[in-house]
Each structure stands twice: as structure tokens, then as C-alpha cells.
Amino acid sequence: MENLDVLQKVVVLLGCLYLSWRIVRYIWSFLDVGKDPVIVLVTGAAGQIGYALVPMIARGAMLGSDQPVILHMLDIEPAADILEGVKMELMDGAFPLLKGVIATTDVNEACKGVDIAIMLGGFPRRKGMGTKALISKNVGIYKTQALALEQHADPNCKVLVVANPANTNALILKEFAPSIPEENITCLTRLDHNRALSQISANLNVHVGDVKNVIIWGNHSSTHYADANHATVDIGVGYKSVRELVANDHWLDSEFITSVQQRGDAIIKARRLSSALSAASAACDHMRDWILGTPKGTWVSMGVYSDGSYGIQPGLIYSFPVTCEKGVWSIVQGLNIGEFERGKMDDSARELIEEKAWAYSYLH
Amino acid sequence: MLGPEQPVILHMLDIPPAAEALNGVKMELVDAAFPLLKGVIASTDAVEACTDVNVAVMVGGFPRKEGMERKDVMSKNVSIYKSQASALEKHAAKDCKVLVVANPANTNALILKEFAPSITQKNITCLTRLDHNRALGQISERLSVQVSDVKNVIIWGNHSSTQYPDVNHATVKTQAGEKPVRELVKDDEWLNSAFITTVQQRGAAIIKARKLSSALSAASSACDHIRDWVCATPEGYWVSMGVYSDGSYNIPAGLIYSFPVTCCNGEWTIVQGLKIDEFSRKKLDLTAQELTEEKTLAYSCLS
To answer: Which fold has domain B8-126?
Structure first.
């Protein structure tokens, strides 16, 4: 009898606590304590990728549908009118999450207070231009932008470099913005990652959302290695390895890799313009997963500062498989690397070491 | 457009000269690995494109080229919209919702309605949300407030230079509650002239700056139009949509005319009982007149 009494009291107490909590939450919801806006910088914003990216950011595709943003758009003087036109259109979009827009050609104004920086701007590859020449044109740009971010951006600023040569541009940026934590400087290989997922999904005739855990190793260039060895497909009653389902090692070790590497060219051939839509979408995916976390059991590819993992020389920006939690990425460790993979990963690392040497030669 | 829980299948249609570019768009959509996108068709065949369609956004049409007369643009588009209407009539889902964007939007929508009689006339609309959002943007800039705090402007009439952006019922959320825009702006001269022409000519201003027309904001407002129609307008808000007129506000019935509407359960309803002053009356009638003329011109092109 006494126990029943105590039990009754406990139940009543729990009930009251629960109701009180519900009432507090209900009242709290009226206080409209929305999140503070995050300042997002987009350089090269007057270009194609920028035009696709800025409405995605304004709609919440990058940081979530409850995160207000302020956009800082930067481009060069010849593009000032176009940039102003983009700002006008953003205003005309009446986006509820967009709490402010700056359109400027002044890198210092653009970098002020920035929490997130997406670097689309850079000297584009001209016909016949080799990578060494491309690097020589971009080193000065990324040094200047690094100095501006160093001086004016939020000290915890997260940076994503998209403009090619992405890995090496990111490395230059890191060198000249020493206050920004090195783990906050990354480059985009998510586009290649997503392209790899889509090639597999097309081959297996499954939905791309059911394929996961491909890896893009290395440089965002023709030496990147699209690795399906650890990738899986959701078959409804569990996961099966891609290698097993594709049942065509030859395809996975040759055509699959080259089709991912050459996808950019295939898009240019079809559209007569490069892949702005998918690049912008991949940039959103990269940032969103970094900040909001990767789903359990899933990893993504990001170009990050190498720490020696998988025998890759430290001090490069190299694409690895990573998981993200609470705004921090971690390289997925312990994956089995066979001889074929080793060769590909080292080729890409060698290319990055060469690019690094060229970049440094242009700085002195 | 339809919310973060709604999977979609995209049917993209364009003309044969654009087939490769369209395929490039399909490739990019697949490469973006969108979880909600359950399928993509890229086609130059209107029948394949229209099969089982629930929502149709008509961006395609004959663009006005330099030196073209209105009658020429009209006649080109009338035949396009007649054939697309037949395809939708025969192959789309019965309750298909249609949004016409390509200009002349209102009249293209009217032609579509005429030749797709199985589609409920309530389900055929045209886009004036872009102008509506532009008007909100101009007010928010003038008052230095967030655009999300401004509401209930109205775009009356034709999506053309005779559209009438009306702020007489628009309000702004302030610390002291909702206040009328006229009261806060305190500049009737501006509201009755420069503001109106700025909104009317915003398209041209964007072209001047970008050297290209306003794709980003047009696409965004198309999403807003469909989203509010399908998922409902928030309480206390109305939006502008070009819809089949039923005689409300003494506008001739049988035109596709932009009205203030609220949306609930997938249906729009014209906001009734708003006071129309003399100045506004003239503007409402002017744009109705232009639409009546366009209708006559369109029908003459058909015969």
C-alpha cells in the first residue's frame, strides 16, 4: 500500500513537471528568439556559380531553414554593375532569411566580420594555359584575400575554396592567414564526390540518395581518385557493397574513375557553359555537413589540411573521407588501402607537392 | 517550391535546338545528388513531358526579338500555348496546377485555359509574384526595414508596364504593432508615382545592370507562387496571383488578372471588400483595358 502511494506521488510529480515544461516551451515560442544572422562571404559572386549559389544560401540550403544570413558579395571592378544587379535580384527575392546584402569590390569591406567564406573568385584557366601558369596568376589573389580575412574576418571563420587550382589556392590562403585555424581552411571536392555517387547510381539503376561512402582522394584535378571500395548501397534490408553489386571491377577501376574525372568536360560539351548549378549545390552540401554534421554512418569528401593520415605528406590540402560533428571534421581512419589505391593516392599527392613548390616559387 | 518533405520528379521540356543544353541540365541535377529528386526527364516531346504532371511551370515561350511588333510576339505565343494546352489537357493529372511565366503571361495563360477545358479554370494562373516581391523590396528599402516585416502590397492587373502596385492596404511590422505603409513612408507623391514606375520598370533596370534578365528572382518568385498556393498563405498575409477573374472589383470576368489572394487547402480566394480609391480605380481599369485588347488580339491570331 505504501509503495503504491509513493508510486502515485511520483507519477503525479512527473506529470506536473512535464506539463510545466510544455507550458514554458509554449511561452518561449512567443518570444521569437530567432538565431543571430551568420555573415557569409562569396567571392567571385558576379559569376555563374555565384548566381546559382547566392539564392541557395538565401533560401537556407547551406545553413538550414532557421538560420538567418547576411551576404557579403565580392567581385572585381569590371563586374561591379553585374554584382549590383545580383544584389537587386536578391532584394527582389524577398527572402525571409536574408537579413542584409553587401555588394562590393573592396576586399576589406567584404571580409568584415565574416563567419563563412566561399571563395569562387580566381583567375580562370585560359585556353592552352597549364596549371603552373594558372597557379602563377592565382597566388597573388589568394595572398591578398588571405591577408584581408586574417585582418577582418571572425577568428573562427570557416573557409571553402572552390576556384581552381582549389587545393593549392587553399594552401596559399592558409599560409597568409595564420590566425585562422588550419582545420578551418578547406577546398571543394564534394562535387566530384556527388558525381561519383551519381555515376554509381546510374550504373546500378538506384536512387542517388541510396548510395554513400564513395571517397575522393587528393587533388581537385584530373589526378583525383574516385574510390568506390568502401561505398555501399541501401537495398532496403541493409547495405551492400558497391563492388559486389556492380560486379565489374574493371569498370570500377577504369571507366568509372575517368567518367567522374571528365564529368566537368561532359557538362561543358552539353551546356556550352561549365557546371554552375551542381558546383553551387556541392558547395552548400560541403558547408552544411561541416557545420550541421554528417548523418550517422555516412562520410563525405573534403579537401582538408593533411596530418599524415594514410601516409599522405602533411602540410598539403588533400581530399580525404571525413565525418563532421559540432562544426569539426575528422578524417575517417582505419580504411584498408590496397596497392591500386595506394598508387592513385600517391600520384595525386605528388601532383599537389609539385603545385605547392610552384606556388612558393611565385611568392618569392 | 513544395517543402522539404515533398519528393519530386522533374519533367523538363524545351525545343530541339536546346536538347543538348537541356541534357546538360539533367546531368547537373543528377550530379547534385538531391535527396528529394526522385527522377528527371529531359525531353523535347510535349506529350512525354506533360504525362501525369501535377504542377506545370510554363517558362517557355517565344521571346520578343528586336523589331518585333506586339502582334508578332502574340501570334507566335498563341500557337505555342494552344499546343501545350492540348498536351496538358490530354496527359496531365486532372487537378494539375498551372503557372504561366513566359510573356505575355496573362494572355498566354488565357489561351492555355481556352484550349485545356478539362483543367479547372481556377488551376490556371500567371506570375505576378515577382512584381509583388519587388514592391515589398522597394518599401523595405525606403523604410530601412526587413523585407519580411512588410506585407500585403497588391499587384493589380497585367504583368506588363500597366500593372498597378498598390500599397493602400500594405503594412509594416513595427515595435508598436502593424502600421500602414502610407503612414510610415509619409510621401504620397513618391508612392503614387516613382514607386509605381520603379516596380514596373525593375525588369529593365536588372537587364541594364546584369546585361541579362532577372532569372534568379523570377525563379524564386515562381517557387513562392506555387508554395503559397499549395501549402497556404500565412495567417494575415495575402499575395498577388494572376487568376481567372470572376467580376470581383468590377474587373471584367474572363480575363487572367492579378488580384490579392489568400490560399488554403490548395485553393486561392480573392481578398474581398478592400476599399478602392479613385486614383486606384483608374489604374485598375487601365490595366484591365489592356488585357481586354490583348485578348482580342490573341483571338484574332487564332482565326
So the answer is: Rossmann fold (3.40.50)
